[in-house]
Amino acid sequence: MSKGKFAVGALVGAAAGIIAGLLTAPKSGKETRAEIKEKATDLKEEAVKRASTTKRRAMDTAEDARTKAHDLKERGERAFDGARRGFEKE
């Protein structure tokens, strides 16, 4: 299982647990709704933070891959040119 799927599952499980706990707690409806709203806001903020971090890491990884691909292309071209010059001398 990937880390991303696990994290989503953990967030969904935590949200379900929080909601279940709030709904079974001996509080008034108004208090319960306020607490659910607060917890939902907290979970949303955490999800936005994690999404931002994940996006930044993905962009960094993509840039790193582009750089490595460019370097490999240049190395391959130099090797090909060197081999071609070697055959031309013979």
Can you describe what's shown?
It contains two helices and no strands. The chain is rod-shaped, with a radius of gyration of 27 Å. 92% of the residues lie in helices and 0% in strands. The model has no long low-confidence stretch (mean pLDDT 85). It has helices spanning 3-24, 29-89. With 90 residues, the protein is mainly α.
Topology, please?
Elements (H helix, E strand, L loop, with lengths): L2 H22 L4 H61 L1
Core attributes:
mainly alpha; 2 helices
What's this, in brief?
The protein has 90 residues and is an all-alpha fold. The chain is built from two helices and no strands.
Number of strands: 0
Strand content: under 5%
Helix content: over 70%
**Radius of gyration, in angstroms, nearest whole number:** 27 Å
Number of helices: 2
Question: Which descriptor suits the 3D outline?
Answer: rod-shaped
Order of helices and strands: HH
Uncertain parts:
none
Mean pLDDT: 85
- The structural class is mainly alpha
Mind summarizing the main beta sheet? none
Question: Distance N terminus to C terminus?
Answer: 56 Å
